[in-house]
Design brief:
The complex is a heterotrimer of chains A (225), B (247) and C (636). Chain B is an alpha+beta fold and 247 residues long. Helix content of chain B is 35%, strand content 12%. In chain C, strands 6-2-1-10-18 form a five-stranded parallel sheet. Chain C has a five-stranded antiparallel sheet with strand order 12-16-15-13-14. A four-stranded antiparallel sheet of chain C has the order 17-11-19-20. The chains are: A mainly alpha (225), B alpha+beta (247), C alpha+beta (636).
Amino acid sequence: MNNLLAFFSSSIGRKVLIAITGLLLVLFLIAHLIGNLLFFLGPDSLNSYAAALKGNPALLWSARIGLLTVFVLHLMNALALAMQNRAARGVQYQNKGYMAATAASRTMVITGLVVLLYVAYHLSHFTLGLTNPDHFSMHDAQGRHDVYGMILHGFQIPVVAWGYVAAMLVVAYHLSHGIQSSLQTFGLRNENYTPCVKQFSVFLALLLCLGFSSIPLAVQFGLVG
Amino acid sequence: MNFTLHVWRQKNVDSPGQMVIYPARDISPDSSFIEMIDVVNSGLAEKGEDPIAYEADCLEGICGCCSMTINGIPHGPGRGATTCQLHMRSFQDGEHIYIEPFRSAAFPLVKDLMVDRSSFDRIIQAGGFISVNTGGAQDANSIPIPKDDADLAFDAAQCIGCGACVAGCKNGAAMLFTAAKVAQLARLPQGQPERYRRVVHMVETMDNEGFGSCTNQYECEAVCPKEISVRYIAEMNRDYIKAKLCK
Amino acid sequence: MELDSKIPSGPIADKWTKHRFEMKLVNPANKRKYDVIVVGTGLAGGSAAATLAELGYNVHAFCFHGSPRRAHSIAAQGGINAAKNYPNDGDSIHRLFYDTVKGGDFRSREANVHRLAEVSVNIIDQCVAQGVPFAREYGGLLDNRSFGGAQVSRTFYARGQTGQQLLLGAYSALSRQIGLGKVRMHVFKEMLDLVVVDGHAKGIITRDLRTGKIESHAAHAVVLATGGYSTVFFLSTNAKGCNVTAGYRAHRRGAAFANPCYTQIHPTCIPQHGDHQAKLTLMSESLRNDGRVWVPKKPNDPRRARDIPEAERDYYLERKYPSFGNLAPRDIASRSAKEACDNGLGVGSSKRGVYLDFRDSISRLGKDAISARYGNLFDMYQRITDENPYEVPMRIYPAPHYTMGGLWVDYNLMSTIPGLFVIGEANFSDHGANRLGASALMQGLADGYFVLPYTIGDYLARIPSTPITAGSEHAAAASEVTKQTEKLLSIDGKRSVDSFHRELGMLMLDKCGMARNEQRLKEAIEQIPAIREEFWENVSVPGSGAELNQQLEKAGRVADYLEFAELMCRDALMRNESCGGHFREEYQTADGEALRDDENYCFAGAWEYTGKGNSPKLHREPLVFENVPLAIRSYK
């Protein structure tokens, strides 16, 4: 146990923790997306899926607590490392240039914090019902929580929809570096597959962005509803 | 050629520093960056002013002394070369050139463009060796080493310890430096007995010296005058994880 | 002063073994009671400090760089010789010994050279065990290549960075001992004087380059591994910081300086390009394995190299030395290049250059094979000259590179001051009047790993192990150093230190360089004191002594060169013969080869310092050749 703690407090160990939690969050995003895409199958599919989740509080809450833990670990470790890294420079350069480091890799903290802020808003909108209580309190014909209607109404407001799309772009930007970076951190690198991994990382990030954005876009362009 | 230099001047680590402007006139395009600074310095010395302190010795890119960040890039523009191998023909006539020391909390400033990189030595002292006393070695050819392994070990062993990787990294990380030595020795049969002990000690020392941590931006590889690959960082990560979790 | 070389008796092949048995040993428990100072952390100093610490001595290592890994050994490119005979081409310890004695033009000490050849094989074993990544064959075994002055392939190499890899090996061994607390490493400290107590070396005075603090260090013995003095020529292949100061100040304290005129001019360097150049860049002599040296037959030929037909090229090395061809020893290759340029056949804008052409080997072996062998050298050449050597021939010209002369040492590597040991390039012992390629790395590591650690024990075992502290002699030496520093800072003249160094260098290159004669040497001996006088009246050293002051550091080194250069010229003038790197125009054969005078000059000339302003006194150590008969060195 002591060994494990020592490992996770070393610089490499912390990065491993960030990478593991990051990848878990990506898995969550994939699951979340699959759920979201039920939107296109109509109100019944989505609402019954939501009801099924709600109907199993043990599963729901353990997933929520797990997710929150992963999220907090990812965030706290990343912030702690970022502060250490800033201190490691000592005096800042008057003039700093880069030859290879991508803008995405250099802005992970900023994009991460933007995503954090967005998540807070996203939860207060769709999970806690704080921002638009009128959408949150709707019920469908079977008396279930009308998730479909909530999403539809929410995304009919242009600011909400376009804000969502913008947030997904930031998520994609974050992931385009994050996914491939995690493999390097685990030491999973090989001169044959690493170039493919880099491309896959960008591809997956874009796919997630496109998948999530498809709903507000469909609503905004009147393809649904 | 003529240039305007913006040079970081700082008397010592405890005094404040600032950028000072110096003209550099009639510089041959064939002269190296160091020779250009020498011309400026000769002018300063003859006027009785304090010349710009900098470190450079072998002037052929192998001793690792030079430590200038030029226009924000350690060792300046161009890949695979140190400051002393940079020629003025790489710049535009009349260009403003910004020269700062290698910046890292683990490289305390000595004066102007000179820094103290003994933190690197301490990382090596923690384990960057094979424990073999003089005289105890077996015949050199009794350990065959596949050529590919020897070549990969050599690629890592080329590190000149200049610190450009740290200076270029946004995080001030010394991962490429540390990994180059860890991976060199881990590639060779001679390095196996101490392989896991070595990586743990070196990484711990690296952390304690106040270097940052790697966020896989690969700026280090781009500014490395020996173009050492970041693949060695992955290899070090793997060994470290194995050492801490599986051994 | 008595020169006792202490060469053991008996057959040459048994001397070292016998001597190792006869030397006194220090009991393992007593070793930690002895403090040893090692100055310099290159191949010789680094390996010696590490090995002495492994044995159990308390070692204090000093370097003026910020890290022991920065010593100039790191820049050696080509390789390291060892009589392993892995290629099965007829090599042996005796052949390496023979080649080295002959290569040194019969001006080295046979017993030392044989010992060097004996331990050469252990060096390779040691380095491989340390993880030095030497070049290998596909079968996993070590690869060898040939080098100048030898007809066998005995050179081990690590691409074009052999010195770097060997130094990092020694540095890693040293780092291990520092980590274990057995070596105390002092970085950024320059040795400025030797302290002699009752005739024995007992410490050094250093200046901390960062704070300017003058410090005394006491020890039971002092080892100098401070390299050579090629930067007396200002432009050389050496690093800018290389200097003679440690050796010269030890000389002023009583250590004899032997054969200072034996300097090696390396044939394959990139020609000079401008007036502000800070140094000359060497390219490994290994290039001569596949490159062919030539000049146009017609003086001042304006055509580009590619346009000159085969019949109008003079491959002069192949013509003059058919059996060694382009692999003729360094002194011969250098002198031939100079001769060609003196005859107006030189190429390039300065006309001081000859071609080194890879056209034929590229067409024979392919560009890839050449790139694999010399890729980094070709890149370096292109970076500096902006020319692509795969397409146009390289231009090369000789440049000062290595100094065979150095402090005189006996068979135990001890100087004429008891307790002062000198190893590596800083001593005079193994290379005679000319060093063969890939032998410097061999000698540095031989001295540091395998010779000094034995012989220093013999000295220490004879002196008391009582703790040693800095005494009045240390204080006196420190105050002299402080005085000189203050003097330099107070001159407040008009000329930069570099301008004096450059002036001295040009003078030395002209009058005491590749070819010397009586008249020019006499002129130099007159002119050097004049430069020295002006230096002490008109040098400008800004800043203070209590901080980092690079001009002050340089000024101290140049001040020593201004005295040392005169000693070099006196030595060259005394030696009325040509041998190896010392070529006196008056003494040459009909076809322009060096003409030795074995009857009168078969000795090592060791100079004793006799006080400021006095002429130095010459002592002769006769050289006896029992195993390699004195012969005219022929590479035809």
